[in-house]
Specification:
263 residues; mainly alpha; 2 strands; globular
Length: 263
Amino acid sequence: MNTHISQLQSKTASLSEAIVHHPAYNAIRDLQDVRVFMEHHIYAVWDFMSLLKALQRELTCTSIPWMPVGDGNLRYLINEIVTGEESDRAYEDGGFHKSHFELYLEAMQQCGASTQGIDALFALLQQGKTVSEAIELTDIPEAAKQFLQFTFEVIETGKPHIIAAVFTFGREDLIPNMFHTIVNDINERFPNQVDIFKYYLDRHIEVDGDHHSLLALQMVEALCGNDDAKWNEALIYVKQALESRIALWDGVLATIQTAEVSL
């Protein structure tokens, strides 16, 4: 493995461990707790896609007329990830395809989680509000607002090596196997209510946890190269991304605990 990548992982290991062992996972005991988790996590699923498309915009030609942009190997890496994330196999039979975000929304609807927040956010964006304005005006969990604001600050840097580092080291592969076990158990207790969510997690392990993670590591390595300044910037932003994820999970835990007290 690249020495710079090993050093970055070593310097952020304690933060990654704090996410993997966050008490929010153990707090999830029933279907309502899953709903709380999803109503926070949907924003991380959405801004993951936004990071992805920001990278595609920076590393490939997305305008007309088309002209070759940048390095062909980097174009391959990002386009390969985009294909899997934006048009993966849908849950239903018949060869349909959906983005992982659309699959997640379908899972939320199946289990009765509210999509009101993300729907309202999209409505404001379609009305022409800026991302910052839409986040501020939408009634979504405060922890999710802070999470989104950081992500779009990353995108606004316009620096591919920073965006790629946050995309690669601060994202969904930090959801532990323990959480998958919890969802499997809840799926058995509540048949036909979280099986789409279970499918989403299974696809995440199969696609993101193996093939895409390797491609993303190669992308960071290529973008940072031997430039120590870029690796240092990547480290700073990855630390902030991990701290932001911890704060999001803190919000999940607080919401679950508040609901338990009120019962």
